Amino acid sequence: MLSGPALLRLVPVLFLGALLASCAAPPKAAPTPPPPPAPKVNLSPQVVQAASAYRYYMARSSAIVPQFADAGTIAGAVQTGAAYEPAQMVRGAIAYAAVVALQDRGFVDAVRVYSRDPDQRREVIHELLKNPAYVVGMPGSAGAAGLVIANLGSDAQRLYDTGKAVKQSAYDIQKQPWSRSDVQARDVRLAAAKSASVTAMSGENAETARLQQISMALPSAAISVPPVAPPYTPTVTRGLAIAALAVLGEARDSDMASVSGLMSESNIGGCMGSAKLNLYQCLAVARPHYEDVFCLGQHALMDTGRCMIRASGLPEPYEARFIPDASSINKGMGKKPPVRKKPARKAA
To answer: DSSP labels for 234-294?
Structure first.
């Protein structure tokens, strides 16, 4: 055992050890885990295919050449112009808007910020699905909207201009005797147009692959289209919302039950439905071949192009309407307008 003096000498040593132990650095806290990686941009192939089908119709119909040499070329052009189902065209236009929006790097990077916090990501997804106009408040949406409007609008204007040229050719070809002969099997021709109108469209493989590549939001060349401030049409807004969902990883095949709800728009669908009804009525009463050309130009192409211009939010083209008066009616019937006699002068 330690004697009294030895024990007294040991006390300071023990006290110093305890003091040093109390001054030691506290144990380090566990490092904060890094935020989860942002999900990859993922747009369902079903959306891409809808966009490709829309592009297929717009490209083929806009390529109709307004020079017709015989009844066969007219019949083929009528089938091409009639070959879309209104609801599918609306879905395709909105899907194409989503693909185009994903080309805007500023918009994609701005939306990615919402992926850093899982709770915020879920909240943003919920708001987009509940009200697609929520996307308008996101940074970068004006730039993406400008790109969408420019693409939808230019395609629609091209279709409208083609229709205008085709409509003019309906008057030009009347100089050719064959164009004034009656269409054979007119009921079959009308039935074929109606059948083409309800048959589902599909896009070309090359265009589908190109749009799929774009939808992955891979680095691309700088975009020079200026931003456009809101308000936007429902077609543009819904396309932007789907693009935002794709950036947040919520527009996959497994999400299509909710995404499909954003791919409809009643106003433009109704516009296209009216265009189709006018086309059917026009073909039902058309007899000579040049009248079929008029139906194609006015109702299949110009009316559809006007609907899509409206969907983009650009000003609709002005088309002067001819309103007949008594003079023009008499002239058209080969009659001279009635001459109004001057009232007889009273004798002074």
So the answer is: HHHHHHHHHHHHHHTT-BSGGGHHHHGGGS--HHHHHHHHHHHHHHHHHHHH--BHHHHHH
Q: 96 and 152 in contact (C-beta within 8 Å)? A: yes
> Mind listing the pLDDT tens digit for each residue in 228-269?
999 999 999 999 999 999 999 999 999 999 999 999 999 999
pTM greater than 0.85:
no
Residue 224 lies in a domain: yes
Regarding predicted confidence, which is higher, 60 or 31? Answer: 60
List, as own/partner pairs, every contact residues 63-70 make where C-beta atoms lie below 8 angstroms and the sequence separation is at least 24, other chains included. 63/162, 64/162, 64/166, 64/296, 64/301, 66/162, 66/165, 66/166, 66/168, 66/169, 66/297, 67/169, 68/169, 68/173, 68/179, 68/289, 68/293, 70/178
Q: What domain range includes position 238?
A: 45-314
| Residue 37, pLDDT score | 64
Residue 19 lies inside a defined structural domain of this protein: no
Q: Rounded to whole angstroms, how far apart are CA atoms 289 and 280? A: 15
Q: Is residue 324 part of a domain?
A: no
Residue 36 lies in a domain: no
Is 278 within 8 Å of 61 (Cβ atoms)? no
Residue in 315, 312, 322 with CA at minimum distance from that of residue 100: 312
The two structure tokens encoding residue 190: 């009308």
pLDDT for residue 199? 86
Tokens of residue 119, six digits? 């709770």
Count structural domains, the chain: 1
- Token pair for residue 179? 């164009």
Confidence (pLDDT) at 183: 93
How far apart are the C-alpha atoms of 287 and 265, rounded to whole Å? Answer: 35
53, 90 Cβ separation under 8 angstroms: no
Q: Cα 168 vs. chain centroid, distance in angstroms?
A: 29
Distances (CA, A) of 216 to 43, 47, 121, 263, 317: 7, 12, 19, 19, 35
Whether residue 300 contacts residue 163, with contact meaning beta carbons closer than 8 Å, is answered with yes
Q: Which two tokens stand for residue 297?
A: 């130009």
